[in-house]
Structures are given as structure tokens and as C-alpha cells.
Amino acid sequence: MMKYDRIVVRYGELSTKGRNRKQFIKKLAHNVKRAIADFPEVKVFGERDRMYLLLNGADDQVVLERLRPIFGIQSFSPAVRVAQDLEEMKQAGLSLVRAMHQMGGTFKVNTRRADRSFELDTNEINHELGGFILQHIDDLRVDVRNPDVKLLVDVRSEGVFLSCQTIQGAGGLPVSSSGRAMLMLSGGIDSPVAGYLAMKRGVELEAVHFHSPPYTSERAKQKAIDLAGKLAQYSGQVQMHVVPFTAIQEMIKKQIPEGYTMTVTRRMMLRITDALRQRREGLAIVNGESLGQVASQTLESMLAINDVTTTPIIRPVVSMDKNEIITIAQAIDTYDISVQPFEDCCTIFTPPSPKTRPKLEKVERYESFIDFEALIQEAVAAAETFSVEVANLNKVQDEFSDLF
């Protein structure tokens, strides 16, 4: 098996960033380093139009898998570097094609010459390397349209990079390049998908989960932590805040008319999340609301709930139907966790007939008889905050850009 000495990373959307480009590349390099923190021998160099990972003996296959879910990467290739010397290029190209070749297979050479001072042009390089490889592999043919193996040759001033693989990256923008937001993470299907989509646009997320013992179990809390662990694949880790919500839910059930308990519950959750956002210097709140899916997600309900804050609320799945959301949940490996039968605090006190068109003035009147501010401050102060590290890195999903 071919032993690679480096990985070449291509940026994709980052290429369009002008003066901010350096900052985006710096964020991406940070996220890559965090994802391979257990390989200290790997050195990461973020150049203007490429990133290079010098493997220094590290397991190239494991490092390649770690790169798959990192947002901001368009594609990447395991590669070898040789000097700008035609004989070295021929030998390296032969070794790479031989390692990928199957009996009766086809190939082509595709050269990109960034360094125009190199003595041969792209066609001459293709001809020289292709002819040499054909001489040394008996059952190999050239197919320029649909080859089984494509030898990529990148001639640059710092050397010549050769590779036979181009692996699709996750696309998007590096996590944290767009700022920090709080994700309202339940144990359901929608909120992890919303978190994933926000992260793809460069948002660094901190998860907020509401826990109501003894009505919700420790297993329900662990379910939310497991979901945060899946999201951590895209950033290396996710900060999580578990908020004790029992006292507030009991007060709502006792004092608020039944049809309005869901609306008031959501308003309290949003107020607490906003307080945590201020403490953590976040810029927005992300949730998994999908318009019309449940009673609390009508436009009238959103208006009544949203009224407690002026903070921007990002709803990445608002226009998706359930099947679209499920497809993404399965692709990012959160679906099987989300459907585990452990109830979260959103479902334990759900009234049989919640108001689908709550009136804001009625909600405010019902709340005015209760000192919710004190209860909110107690909940924020008692929130348990910890870091959730990458969960199950070996099970990295396939590229899912075709979902969009």
C-alpha cells in the first residue's frame, strides 16, 4: 500500500473571501488541529490557496477520516511531494498508479502547472509521465474521458505534488468563523439537524438542554449529550449547558391555563437560553422549529414565544418537511439517537389541546401573576456546563452536499 507523506487540502468557498481570507484559513487550521490533536506529529500549514498536513509517519487513513466532516474543506488528497525533477516525478507517479491499479484498468495524467517557470508545459508533463507509466504496467490503458485512476500532478514553486485520490470534503465555512450561537438542543430529530446546518455556515454552537428530574430520566439527559457529541465531529468539541427546569415546569403546570402551558414553557426556555447567550457572549440563538409541524410552531405561536427577546433566532429547518429533516438526520448519524424512547421536558407536560394561535396579551397577563424572573435566575445559576468531545470519530458519514 502506498505510503503518503502529506495531505493537500483545498478550501472551496474560502477562495471567494477577500481581505478576510486569512482569518477563515486560521479558523480552519485551528479546527483541523483540534480534530487530529492525538497526532501531535502531524504539522498543519495553512497557505493562501492550499493547506498542507505533513504526516511525519502518522496513519494517513485515520487522518483522512478525521478531515471528512470538517466544514470549510472542499476536497483533499493524500499526496507525495518530490522535487521539480522529471525522473523523481516519473517514479512517484508510477508508484501511485501501481498502488491504485486494478487488472485491465485505465488511467490518465492531469497536470496543473502553478509554477510557470518549470521547463515542461502541462501537455508535455502529461505525455512524459503517461508514457513512462504505460511502459511499466503491462495491462494498463489510457482513457482521458472516464479513467479508473486519475494521476493529479500539481507543479508548484515549493515542489511537485502527486496524488491519485480526490476526496470530497464537507464544504461550508469553518466552524466559529461566523461567530457563536446557542443551540436549543432537545432530544428530538429536528434540533441536531438545525445545529448541523448552522455549523455548516461557520457558526460555533453551545448546546442548551433543559432537564426536569424526576419527570425526565438521566438517560434522556445522556441522549442529548450523545447528540451534542455527534455535532462535535464538526468542531472537535461542543460546550453544553444542562439547565434544571423542574421548578419552572411545575409552576407553569400549576398556575397557567392548560391551553397556554406550552407557549409559556417555550418562552421561559427562550429567556433562559438568552441569558446564557449573554453570559457566553453569543450572537444568536438556533432552534429546530419547523413551521406548522406542532402546535408551538405556527406563526402565531412563534410570534408569542419570540416576543421575549430581540436576539436573532436562526431556524435552519423552518421550511423543511419532516422527511427532509429525517434524511439529513440519518446522513449525520443523529437519527437513531433521536428516536430512542426517552422523553425530554418538551413532551412530559404537553397538554391535550395546546393553543395553536395564542394571544400575546393573554400570555403576558397569565405570566404577570408569577415571579418567573427569580426562577429563571435560579435555573441559569444552577446550569451545569461542560465540554462534549468528539463522539465515535471512526463512524464518519459520507458526503451529504447532494442533499441540498
TrEMBL record:
HAMAP family: ThiI (MF_00021). GO terms for cellular component: cytosol. This is Probable tRNA sulfurtransferase. Belongs to the ThiI family. Keywords: ATP-binding, Cytoplasm, Nucleotide-binding, RNA-binding, Thiamine biosynthesis, Transferase, tRNA-binding. It catalyses: [ThiI sulfur-carrier protein]-S-sulfanyl-L-cysteine + a uridine in tRNA + 2 reduced [2Fe-2S]-[ferredoxin] + ATP + H(+) = [ThiI sulfur-carrier protein]-L-cysteine + a 4-thiouridine in tRNA + 2 oxidized [2Fe-2S]-[ferredoxin] + AMP + diphosphate; [ThiS sulfur-carrier protein]-C-terminal Gly-Gly-AMP + S-sulfanyl-L-cysteinyl-[cysteine desulfurase] + AH2 = [ThiS sulfur-carrier protein]-C-terminal-Gly-aminoethanethioate + L-cysteinyl-[cysteine desulfurase] + A + AMP + 2 H(+). Its EC number is 2.8.1.4. CDD domains: PPase_ThiI, THUMP_ThiI. Pathway: Cofactor biosynthesis; thiamine diphosphate biosynthesis. InterPro entries: Rossmann-like_a/b/a_fold, ThiI_AANH, ThiI_fer, ThiI_N, THUMP_dom, THUMP_ThiI, tRNA_STrfase, tRNA_sulfurtransferase_ThiI. Catalyzes the ATP-dependent transfer of a sulfur to tRNA to produce 4-thiouridine in position 8 of tRNAs, which functions as a near-UV photosensor. Also catalyzes the transfer of sulfur to the sulfur carrier protein ThiS, forming ThiS-thiocarboxylate. This is a step in the synthesis of thiazole, in the thiamine biosynthesis pathway. The sulfur is donated as persulfide by IscS. GO terms for biological process: thiamine biosynthetic process; thiamine diphosphate biosynthetic process; thiazole biosynthetic process; tRNA 4-thiouridine biosynthesis. The gene is thiI. It is an enzyme of class 2 (transferase). It is found in: Cytoplasm. PANTHER family: TRNA SULFURTRANSFERASE. It comes from the Bacteria.
